[in-house]
Amino acid sequence: MIEKILQWSQFEWGSWTLTIAASxxxxxxxxxxxxxxxxxxxxxxxxxxxxxxxxxxxxxxxxTDELTAYFSGRCRHFSLPVALTGTPFQLSVWHxxxxxxxxxxxxxxxxxxxxxxxxxxxxxxxxxxxNPLLIVIPCHRVIGKNGKLxxxxxxxxxxxxxxxxxxxxxxxxxx
Length: 175
Known about the structure:
Elements: E1 5-13, E2 16-23, E3 26-32, H1 37-47, E4 52-55, H2 61-71, H3 88-98, E5 106-107, H4 108-114, H5 121-129, E6 142-143, H6 156-165
Parallel strand pairs: 1-4, 5-6
Antiparallel strand pairs: 1-2, 2-3
Helix pairs in contact: 4-5
């Protein structure tokens, strides 16, 4: 029997707080937010209305460990299971994002080409903005056509920090 629980946890990375959540199928939510459980509860009520949201730091420790390894530069590819819910278009965009190699960036237009929808740049941007798994689905690796950093739910400072962590030089980041 599949558990009817969405487990969540929080941990600190530098001055940021990361909230994560997983269903029985895998990680389904990561976000940088001080509101933590309140924002997660709102998100979960729309996507998983039948699941109880319960804090369980111990059960989510493998996800916390893998994200911590990423933040320390020891993890370039996430291996733990994820459980994504979205439209077919969103899922195709998110899959394309997972194909962007560590330390590289792509433009919104390039993502459109990858998913064979080169004229859907705005829709690509909307799908990226709806990404529920920050970092694991690396939307921070998407930049504007002019090479400048563009919006990121975790904030542009966080996006810049993640790209630097992955080895991008500051001259590439619009400084």
